[in-house]
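Can't paste images in this forum, so I'm doing it all in text. The chain is below; anyone willing to post the predicted structure tokens underneath?
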Amino acid sequence: MPTPQPLAGPMRRGLLRMRLLMIAAGICGIAALMLLPRAVESAWLLLVQDDPVLLADRQLARSFDSAAAAREIEEALAADDAELAQSFVELSRDRNVPVAPELVARVDAAVKTASSASKTAEKFATGLIFGEPDDMVSLAGTALGDLFVFGDVRDAVREGSRFAKGQEVDTLILGLSAVGIAVTAGTYASLGTAAPARAGLSLVKAARKTGRISARMAESIGRTLRSVVDGPALKHAIDGASKTNPAATVRAVRGAVKLEKADDLFRLTRNVGEVQAKAGTRAALDGLKLSDSPREMTRVAKLAQKEGGRTRAVLKFLGRGAIALTALAFDLSLWILWAALTLFGFVSSAKGAAERATWRSLQKRKVRRAQMELQRQRRLAIAAPQG
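Text version of the structure:
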């Protein structure tokens, strides 16, 4: 009499399912291990996306080393930018990144040459006459010209004359000059605006002249100026500008500016001025070029408060990554989602495989008990006396 094999078919199917679930768990586990570091990084970036200090610090820790420092310093020296080279030296020291002593000596020599008396006088004159600063000295010349209204009047009249001749007018320069005239003429103090805003206003105008302002930032400032400056009144003031009575011109231009609506503009210029005060003129110009909005310029100001003279190096090395997520938040969220899905798949598959293994073990015990019972009955039947 053959021994029955109860549940043989279901057990075979259960074994197959268990093996498939184990394979799925293995695949999901490997995928999760590969995705998890990127997902953790994405989650951290999303968490600190509004903190430029932590954002920059994390990215510098990952990519700024001796080779990168040497490369950036060499490039700065080749471009005759001693200030940027010095900024990278300071950043290297702050982060304990070794730099060759001979390279540091070259940077010191370049800084000394750039700060010579002849260079200083040339830069001051360039800032005063042309209003195009790129360092502290030339900014001092630009600020002096704007402080005495000379620079703003010069720029306003120049843009106004272009308009009269039918030439292309830079409305941003025109509007900023008009606000500068109104600010310098005395209404500035009554608004309680701090001194950095005046320097920031000159810098924003200089950034526009030298092409060091992003297109989106320029558009944002332009929208603000349209609500601050009365275009027709400004045009009339400039058309009636008198070389013999500049005070009357200043009063007329000031009347075309509504400083009570300039809070957003002053907030931006204060941030620009703070960057200039903490990190230097070129850092402020670099920040205007990288920032797409006044809000991002606020982040540059926060970064400058912490990094000081190292700010230019940070902005140069990381680019927009120093103040904003270079990857879209949606892309970072996808990494987190995929990691979560693979983890869920691993847990689900492992749970299913464990359940199948438990079920199969229980069924094997049932089969063994049935076989043992059948064998016992056979022995009893053999041992019983024949009738």
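Residues 187-194 have pLDDT under 50 and may be disordered. The chain has 18 helices and no strands.
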